[in-house]
Amino acid sequence: MPGTDIRLRAARPEEAAALTGLMLRSKAHWGYDDAFLKSCVPELTLLAGEVAGRRIVVAERRGEVLGLASLEGEAPVVRLGLLFVEPRAVRQGVGGTLYRDALARARRLGADRLLVEADPHAVPFYTAVGARPVAGAPRGLPRFEVRLAGTPAWVRAWTGGRRAVHLGNVAEYNRQFADPTLDDVQEPAHHYSCLAAFYSPHPAALVLPLSVPQGWLATVSRQLGWGEVELYDGLAEGTSGRGGVRSGLAARPALAARLRETGLPMVSWGQTGAAALRYESKSAANALFRRLAGTGRHPGIRVPEQAYAATRWRAARLLRARARAGETAVLKTEHGVGGSGTAVVAPGGARAVLRRLPRGPLLVEEYVEGVPEGGDLTYDGLVDATGRVHDVGAAVMEVAGTAYRGATVGPGVVPAPLEAAALAFGHAVGRELAADGYRGWFDVDFVADRGGRLAPTETNLRLTGPSVAFMVGARLDELRGAGHLVRIVDRVPLGARLPDAGLAEHVEALTAGCAELGVLLLPAVPTAAFAPSPYLGVLLASHSRPALDAADALVRRASSALSMMFTG
Fold this sequence. Notes:
Layout: E1 7-10, H1 16-28, H2 34-44, E2 57-61, E3 64-69, E4 77-80, E5 83-85, H3 94-108, E6 113-117, H4 123-128, E7 132-134, E8 143-147, H5 153-159, E9 164-167, H6 170-175, H7 187-192, E10 203-207, H8 216-224, E11 230-232, H9 245-250, H10 253-261, E12 266-268, H11 282-293, E13 306-309, H12 312-324, E14 329-333, E15 342-345, H13 350-355, E16 362-366, E17 376-383, E18 389-400, E19 403-409, H14 416-435, E20 440-448, E21 454-460, H15 465-480, E22 485-493, H16 500-516, E23 520-525, E24 535-542, H17 545-560, H18 564-567
Parallel strand pairs: 4-6, 9-10, 9-12, 10-11
Antiparallel strand pairs: 1-2, 2-3, 3-5, 6-8, 7-8, 13-16, 14-15, 14-16, 17-18, 17-20, 18-19, 19-22, 20-21, 22-24, 23-24
Helix pairs in contact: 1-2, 16-17
């Protein structure tokens, strides 16, 4: 993997002349004429007495210096004064390694902004690493700015600020609730376990139920600056679909011991067999919401009415009563994943819906008329080992009917009044979960009604698609500057089934197209591209909402167009 064998160290004063030569060779790499290069000599001449003051760091491989970067000025605004790479080492990860180190050093200095005045030929590099162009460079050169932010408290609480081992146990988690909407094979859940790559901002190892395409992890690791990540995949294969990550580890005691010996935190999709999961029940969650709303401390919250039906017959009676009043209702199972087991029932439509759901128990809930777009929201938080609740943030979900299809997180995504109400109520839910003994990640889903209030609909005591987007946002803010918007697109239908080589080619084309829009694409769920109904899961990141929307449209359009390979 490019860049993994690069080592950084402080430059030494006696290297000043050699580093001057490196900078001049790097400048000449862009084809400037001799007269211009001669005019650059005074600016690019480094004196021994300047090395420490300009905070110069060099990158070397096997003792050979391949690049350097300086960090100049004092907080709150510092400047990347120099960043040069030996011509023969261009595109080998040297520049990116030096740049990321400069951002980390700037944060340690207490700076909140990093300024860059770039050579015109370096514009694609700074654009690719997420720097934002700004006007006003004194010499007419391209100028960039990077806003810096510290590590969020929730990241430190989640893994202690350490790398972690990620277990893709989605199928085992879902299965413990005997969700009737998921088949026995649990193949969809195994595909979704690929999101284990993003269970924390910086994994050390992944343990996955399915074999993943060769090169997928290396691609994601390179984009997120993870370095080496150990991969153990295929643990559920050859078990008729009923096995999972935990049973796979039980059958491989040496691997289980190896992971334990790392001493690193182990992060999974969710807990299994834990008594403190009772609020995964939608009726228990609704009762909790009612209790909290009844305190009068959450005027921006309205809790939907909900009735329990032990049988289909009882559910039908409740639906008929609502139909006679001309009311639409929501019919739910106690447990469901991604909107499964939930249906919106208009007056007169109960019979067809009931046939598709289990005999009971069922829940009949008031239907909340949401705003036309952006009305499905979620709050994410976590309860740490001491029982303290940490707010992660609020997000806008994309929901098709009742099915979850993705979410967008980041600053300004949720309107401020709704965000404040979601954070306050979500935090209150977290305190109740903590008091009940729960420890770990959780979320609360809401519908924003047309009156500007939030209706909480369920809790999830596990990681979710939005939580993955928050993880990636935290990592990108660290690597590329603060303020990233991240969208997880859960299922992008593919117009054709793609083998691994075809998928890699498709993802490469999508990545290039998104980069032209200023958007980073991360392949998130790559194992379903050859499924009977093929799809791809992706993460998109940018500082711009319009750019994110454009990239989303590009990915969907290009993926659908794959059918043209066979239809002409």
